[in-house]
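Morning - biotin inputs below, output right after.
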Amino acid sequence: MSGSGSARRLTLDDFRHEALGETGSTNSECLERARNGALSGLWITAARQTSGRGRRGRAWASEPGNLYASLLLIDPAPLGRLPSLPLAVAVAVQAAIASVMPPGVDVRVKWPNDILVDGRKVCGILVESETLAAGGQAVVIGIGINVAVAPDHGLYPVATLRDFGCAASPDELFAHLFRAMAVVLGDWDGGQGIAPVIERWRSVAGGIGERITVNLPDRAISGRFAGIDDTGLLKLDLDDGGTRLIAAGDVFLMSSAVRQP
Ligand code: BTN
């Protein structure tokens, strides 16, 4: 699998799955496999993680009952196109979750790739990458979905899929995720197909047009969420009339019952 631009489009057959009972972190498992020569397209799931990782060095509590899944990709796209990968991932995860929810439950993406139901976080995504000694870039997409347990990660209001009437097990949800990710990564096509993916992202985004606060590494800024640009950067309309483009940060929607950062 390669995102060089000339590679063929990914299909379901490009992916395989290994299910573990317990591990430290499925992201760490994937990175370790990559260092040992694993090929692209490996999904690892675990029933429980003992050292689950969240974004910005936070822990991700990982008791049984939820889905903990990581996908290893090797050289999924030229480096310049990699920043759009988290948006494609969010579109796939949103579709997978929506497909196991009762009709009428609105599943939304919060930039860049948290998934919310009724303004509460039900899923977190952590994308990590590493240059391999043997050459090539290992990219690991880690996905934690609160199926039955909602650990309080401190920053956002949280919920489980069960809270909204989902009856699917983590394994059933994973089957949807496996398929949705193959389809969306095929469309994304090593970053060449980002335009339709961004359109899909916009159609399921939460908070566009609303007042938001973005936690940057050094400070927090507030403004109106004006959407994302064609590369996936967040557009924030500031109170002084300017617009700021943001590549990374924690977003707090004012419409959900958020704890202030
Ligand atoms: C976040 O902080 O919102 C991202 C959380 C990502 C958690 C998942 S669970 C599966 C994978 N393994 C990890 O250690 N982390 C990710």
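Note: The longest helix spans residues 170-188.

O.
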